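Now for today's protein:

——
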Amino acid sequence: MRFSNRIRFQKRFFDRFSSSYHLINFLSFGLATLTRRRSLTTLKIEEGETICDLMCGDGSNIGMIRKKFNKSRIFGVDISEGMIRRARFRFGEDNVTFLTENALSSSISSSSCDAVSCTFGLKTLSFEERKILFSEVYRILKPSGAFVFTELSRPKFGLIYLLWNFYFGFLLPLLGRFFLLPFVGKKYLSHSIDSFENITKDESSFRSVFSQVDLFSWYGGIVTGACGRK
């Protein structure tokens, strides 16, 4: 019951947020776009491969993949109908299959994807849900298929931590209320990052599923993630 309630909440919340999600890049001073590009380069995608973007939101990753690899087949999966509708409007459906589904249990065939990406989605899931997600990624990846998970994280110390605390704890919620963005205005984003902390909490879960795992930390710990192969 609790799990299904969380799913319903996330669906309603991100449906409401879908029309203004693109403003996050402006509020992050371009960090969101820079992170997406850098994250996707870790996959070493080749033309014609099949790529799945889980929790794809409004399709920002999909747009980047399509621009560079327009002959690749792409799956975009998100639980929010509003997000999928926005992604379809932005990028159309040429070589893209959009699925309004739970990323923890999609209809994508087993061993069908060369690569899987997931950017800024882990913090919305509980620890147990993330373990389910990793198993689902393993299922849909081809043998030796690549994956990358990238997430906003909380720096541990120093000037970066002070700047992070000021921006995410005070300035961003203020801007969110001014621009009527519930995702940041009600501190959902900062609270989610606080709960997630960083990727190291999931290291054992990654290594229990995948044969190759490399953790990374970018921009002084503001972004952390994991990449590797099935």
Notes: The domain at 1-229 is CATH 3.40.50.150 (Rossmann fold). The chain has one domain: 1-229. The beta strands are 50-54, 73-78, 96-100, 113-119, 141-152, 212-218, 223-229.
